[in-house]
């Protein structure tokens, strides 16, 4: 028995229902993110209620001590959690899209390991391309340059004949082990003070965030996201397969180049300021894809919100697990990310 054809009106109604569902999910994730953000501002060495937080943010008559703690200490860190989480998720989802590999992310492609090695060069050997007046940014610049160098190396090899997307991810895994070995060699010869600084940096921490760094990361996220949004149709078509995307007029090679370089730029800027934070760029895109599908018009903002929510929740956990102490957020994301990713794999298998 043949299935009756779907009328244009039925197709339109189905599309509208799907769009409303996706917008509802986006709104729900956004509300959860705002709640996590307020909780992140509320907890710490001194606990404040949500009303006290909102009052200190908007009321100039609020107690000075509360306003100083929130504006100068907690607010840059809480906002950095949102921006870094969104940046890593956007970078991860686009790397997975242009490479067609669900395991692609800034962490698995070796960009985070390269940034850690670049930071160690500055912390242990004092290597810096900046003048002495800009020494405060020597470590982030080193991390950024080495990370982008690794991204350009991956792209250069990806242009060789016979290189597949699976081989690119394997190449990234090779870079992870290479830069990890180089980092361990530096740690072996490092003095105790420099060694502790490197170990803390590689754990990932938002405590180094300030308004200037937050501004740089926010502008980078806005510009790169806008560039990806303009290519939403082409990126969605690429998920149909390289041959079908080419038949639809998509310049696959150029799109892949832009995706790798812009994703690497976004991840490198964040990692250079806050250190190594794993699994956000890998897990958040998978969660977003399960919620809204492959349409980049919805997948891109959903991935950004999922990443922001994950890292904001991790920031809350980092201050709650041990009384009176704040764990490096990279430890929390790894501890939570592994079982979460395993759960996603098993669910996809079913």
UniProtKB/TrEMBL annotation:
Keyword check for Transport: yes
Membrane topology, record value: Multi-pass membrane protein
Compartmental location: Cell membrane
Transmembrane segments: 23-48, 68-91, 103-128, 134-155, 167-190, 210-229, 260-286, 329-348
Domain of life, source organism: Bacteria
Cross-referenced Gene3D superfamilies: ABC transporter involved in vitamin B12 uptake, BtuC (1.10.3470.10)
Chief location: membrane
Keywords from the named record: Cell membrane, Membrane, Transmembrane, Transmembrane helix, Transport
CDD domains: TM_ABC_iron-siderophores_like
Similarity comment: Belongs to the binding-protein-dependent transport system permease family. FecCD subfamily.
This protein's name: Iron ABC transporter permease
